[in-house]
Amino acid sequence: MAIAPWHEQAWAQFVGARASNRLAHGLAITAPGDFFKLEFATMLGQAMLCRSPLSDGRACGTCRDCILLASGSHPDWIAVSPEDSAYIRIDQIRDVSARLAQRPQIGVRQVVLLHPADRMNVAAANALLKTLEEPTPDSYLILCSERHERLPATIRSRCQTLAIKPNLDDRWGRALAERAEVSLDAAITALQMAGNDPQAALAVAAPDELAARASLAKSLLSLANGRTEPSVVSASAGKEVALWLERFAALLRLSVRSVSLKSPFEELRDLTSRLEMSRLFALQREQGRIRALLGSGLREDLMLYELCCQWRDAARGTR
Ligand SMILES: [Zn+2]
After folding, report:
1. Architecture of 5-163 per CATH?
2. Cα 65 to ligand 1 centroid, rounded to whole Å
3. How far is the CA of 4 from the centre of ligand 1 (A)?
4. Which of 121, 144, 193, 304 could staple 41 via S-S, CB 3.0–4.6 A?
5. pLDDT tens across 237-274, in order?
6. Residue 46 Cα, ligand 1 centroid: separation in angstroms?
7. Buried b (16+ CB within 10 A) or exposed e, 31-64
8. What is the CATH code of the structural domain delimited by 206-316?
9. Domain boundaries of the chain, sorted by first residue
10. Contact in structure between 173 and 188 (CB atoms under 8 Å)
11. Residue 56, pLDDT score
12. How far is ligand 1, taken at its centre, from the CA of residue 63, in Å?
């Protein structure tokens, strides 16, 4: 796979550090959102194990190491994620340390990928810190977190940061369009709506999803103008209440986007950005509360109806 345009800068940082032998044992991948971080971290690990990398530093895909990696059986590739728990546990980190204490089995180095590294309990984090403080030669630990700032400061300070930055350019839309198999127009709209996070945008870019969001945006505008009734809009959720709430929340979040948007998203953003902050927060809280109550037996249609009334009243207050 080629280096995606959103990863180019961080990749160049990695290649530069490796070329000048300044690559730390602990590497932390950061990004202001999803940004296909795991994909980046995986490509990084593959590049480190490949014995004949391409000129741009990527794994060749054809050597013995690459073939073993592709089949999931490279003995020097250690992937660690939470198992039967929300957190990575200490025994998993101890296993990693024990393996790193041995020599690489077939290659010249061992590579560990921790994901999500910020989902580690305290004992596991302390054990990892020890491993980072006393690194074995030729071992690398890649820490890929959901939110880098959740990692203990002691661990962060032991890692070299490779930062994926949201430096949007024209190629992002084209790359996303290709990946999502949608039109360039849809890809650009999705990027704008997702705050230029390509991974978040991928979910938005699907034609049905964009159409559903546009339809909900129009309904919310109609409610604000008194051209439709709350009951009509709440009924439009049908059985997909959770999805409806997710779209509603995403549309409210447009108020903080500073890019220009397409109609009807632009009109909705204009309206939400004029809402009082307290009312906007109250609407977000309420949709979150309803989401948490789904499946509890409470009447979902009534809760949605109330939310639509709340939206209408808040939107009318902006005039
Ligand atoms: Zn290779």
Report:
1. 3-Layer(aba) Sandwich (3.40)
2. 6
3. 19
4. 144
5. 999 999 999 999 999 998 887 778 889 999 999 999 99
6. 8
7. bebbbbbbebbbbbbbbbbbeebeeebbbeeeee
8. 1.20.272.10
9. 5-163, 206-316
10. yes
11. 94
12. 4
